[in-house]
Design goal:
The chain is of the alpha/beta class and 371 residues long. The chain has 12 helices and 17 strands. Strand 14, helix 9 and strand 15 form a beta-alpha-beta unit. Helix 6 packs antiparallel against helix 7, helix 7 packs parallel to helix 8 and helix 11 packs parallel to helix 12. The protein is globular and about 60 Å long. The two termini are 12 Å apart.
């Protein structure tokens, strides 16, 4: 079996020769760290410049089979994005910068974490019509160039082909902020509806264009990131009313083209939003954050049955510990894998405190246990 066949068989509760070893990428700092430690060679291009290994090459060295995520998709965000602009500078070297979403953020030297948001350009109808509406127009300028040769190349990939289905709320949250989206709903519900309807149309037309070009994905993939550790950043009833139909429209389209697996990337405690996703055709939760709230596919499966699948849920923190911690985590995963319809995967990008040897040990033991 190929890794593509294995992954899809698992998510359809079919027998496989082994469970594929899946990842979700590294923090950028890992590359330079592993190079300094001598685990990753720095090769030379023909012109003598350094050639750094690609993410796929590094993960192959570590024993992973493939990364979970979209392989192809349309541009479903602002087009064009805002041009980055420094709006203020401070003696400590920090700056306030308006980013591509029109959000002014605080950028501090040497810091790579998510920056604090200072202010937002999208605050009302006037700002929507002046700065945003023309950046969110459906059309072919958003679609990838899919020649017959490119389509054939995508369809022949040895790992699962994911089609990026965009975001039906998360992008809006990025533009207006958590507080701003709440105020827009309270102050101008019609504008709230208009923005989300436009965003859903951009996503739908992009998915439709890729499918009509001949791409045959194994799964559709949405991104949202609209929850935190205690629950969602949107009222679940509002989410169902304004976003549920958009999910239904896209997942129904995918099913007409033979794609019945739809995964959803959302961080945080997602439990109260799962009913909307399941009802409207999104059936695979990702990344199932172990985090501080011990998320697991087990209680979701108990509530929603085999219609709910999962990718993720492996506690990557053990990579910073020792072999015993890795073994304990693999034993914790064993009964979850036995449920079927579940692919373990580090629940977020692997951080720079991970030890190279621990990751190698994990992939080797994973194959022995789930082979």
């Amino acid at each position: 079996m190929t890794d593509r066949e294995r992954a899809m068989a698992v998510l359809h509760y079919e027998d496989v020769d082994r469970i594929p070893v899946v990842h979700f990428g590294f923090w950028d700092e890992c590359y330079s760290l592993f190079e300094r430690q001598g685990h990753i060679p720095v090769l030379k291009n023909e012109d003598g410049t350094d050639r750094h290994l690609t993410e796929r090459e590094v993960f192959a060295m570590l024993g992973f089979d493939f990364g979970w995520g979209p392989s192809v998709g349309s541009h479903c965000d602002l087009l064009p994005a805002f041009s980055p602009e420094v709006v203020a500078e401070f003696p400590d070297g920090s700056r306030h910068v308006r980013n591509g979403d029109g959000v002014v953020v605080c950028v501090k030297p040497g810091k790579t974490s998510i920056p604090a948001e200072i202010s937002h350009t999208l605050v009302d109808r006037e700002s929507w019509e002046r700065e945003f509406s023309h950046r969110l127009v459906p059309g072919p300028d958003r679609w990838p160039r899919l020649t017959p040769e490119r389509v054939a190349e995508i369809n022949a990939l040895p790992y699962p082909v994911g089609l990026d289905c965009g975001s039906l709320y998360g992008r809006f949250r990025n533009w207006a902020g958590f507080t701003g989206t709440c105020y827009l709903y309270a102050d101008d519900e019609e504008l709230f509806r208009e923005i989300l309807s436009r965003l859903a149309e951009v996503c739908y037309t992009g998915v439709k264009a890729v499918l009509e070009a001949g791409v045959r994905p194994d799964f559709g993939h949405f991104w949202e990131d609209i929850c935190f550790k205690n629950g969602p950043l949107v009222n679940p009833e509002v989410f169902e009313e304004y976003c549920g139909p958009g999910y239904e429209r896209i997942t129904s389209l995918l099913r007409r083209y033979g794609c019945d697996i739809c995964s959803l990337d959302c961080d945080g405690c997602i439990d109260s939003l799962i009913p909307t996703w399941i009802t409207h055709g999104v059936n695979t939760m990702f990344p199932i954050e172990v985090g501080t709230w011990n998320a697991s596919i087990a209680p979701w499966r108990a509530e929603y049955g085999r219609g709910l699948r999962g990718v993720g849920g492996m506690d990557k923190r053990v990579f910073a510990m020792d072999y015993a911690a890795v073994d304990a985590e693999l034993e914790r995963l064993r009964p979850l894998v036995e449920l079927g319809g579940y692919l373990p995967c580090p629940d977020h990008r692997i951080p720079p405190d991970a030890k190279w040897d621990n990751i190698l040990y994990y992939t080797d033991r994973f194959r022995k246990i789930f082979g």
